C-alpha cells in the first residue's frame, strides 16, 4: 500500500531542486540572461519550464523503477546506479545557481560537462537493471546535449562575462 508514496516521492524529487534553482535565479533571467549573446537555435524562454517538467518527471519515475527493481537503497547493487543518479542530480541542480545566480560561465560549463558524463553513466548502469528506466533518460540526455552546446556557445560568445575579463 505504500508503493504509490515511493512512486510519487521518487517522481517528484528531481522537481524540488529544479524548482529551487529556478526560484533562486528567476530574477537574473530577464536582468542578465536576456542580455547575453545567444545562438539563433537557442530555445525560447517559455520552452524551458515545460521541457524540464517533462524531463524531471521521466527521470524521477525512472529512478523509482531502478530503486524498486534493486529492492531499495539498502542493496549493495543499488550503490553505483543510484549513486550516479544522485550525483548527476546534484550537478543538474547546481547549474542554474552557477550560471544564472553567480553568472559564472566557467563553472557552469565545467558543471554541465561533468553532468553529461554522470548522466550517460547513469543511463548505462540502469540499462542492465531496467531498460524502460534507461529509455526514459533518453529525452533528458538529448536535452542535455542541446543544453551543453548552448552553454559552450554562450561561454564562447560572451567573453566579457568570464572572471577577470571585465576589468
From TrEMBL:
**Has UniProt tagged this entry with the keyword Chloroplast?**
no
Pfam families annotated for this entry? Answer: TspO_MBR
Q: Where in the cell is it found?
A: Membrane
Record's keyword annotation contains Phosphoprotein: no
GO cellular component terms?
mitochondrial outer membrane
Give the superkingdom in one word.
Eukaryota
**Keywords, alphabetical:** Membrane, Transmembrane, Transmembrane helix
Q: What membrane topology does the annotation report for this chain?
A: Multi-pass membrane protein
Any signal peptide, and if so, which residues? none
Stretches that traverse the bilayer: 6-25, 46-66, 107-129, 135-155
Q: What's the family?
A: Belongs to the TspO/BZRP family.
Protein name listed in UniProt: TSPO protein
Q: Which organism is it from?
A: Melanocharis versteri (Fan-tailed berrypecker)
User: Which taxonomic lineage does the organism of this UniProt entry have?
Assistant: Eukaryota, Metazoa, Chordata, Craniata, Vertebrata
This protein's gene is called Tspo_1
Amino acid at each position: 500500500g505504500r508503493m504509490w508514496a515511493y512512486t510519487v516521492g521518487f517522481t517528484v524529487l528531481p522537481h524540488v531542486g529544479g524548482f529551487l534553482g529556478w526560484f533562486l535565479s528567476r530574477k537574473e533571467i530577464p536582468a542578465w540572461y536576456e542580455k547575453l549573446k545567444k545562438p539563433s537555435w537557442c530555445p525560447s524562454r517559455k520552452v524551458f519550464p515545460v521541457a524540464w517538467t517533462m524531463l524531471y518527471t521521466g527521470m524521477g519515475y525512472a529512478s523509482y523503477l531502478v530503486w524498486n527493481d534493486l529492492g531499495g537503497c539498502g542493496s549493495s547493487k543499488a550503490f553505483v546506479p543510484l549513486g550516479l543518479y544522485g550525483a548527476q542530480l546534484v550537478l543538474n541542480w547546481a547549474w542554474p545557481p552557477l550560471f544564472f545566480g553567480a553568472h559564472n560561465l566557467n563553472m557552469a560549463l565545467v558543471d554541465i560537462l561533468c553532468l553529461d558524463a554522470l548522466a550517460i553513466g547513469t543511463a548505462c548502469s540502469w540499462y542492465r537493471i531496467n531498460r524502460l528506466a534507461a529509455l526514459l533518460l533518453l529525452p533528458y540526455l538529448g536535452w542535455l546535449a542541446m543544453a551543453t552546446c548552448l552553454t559552450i556557445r554562450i561561454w564562447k560568445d560572451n567573453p566579457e562575462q568570464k572572471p577577470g575579463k571585465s576589468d
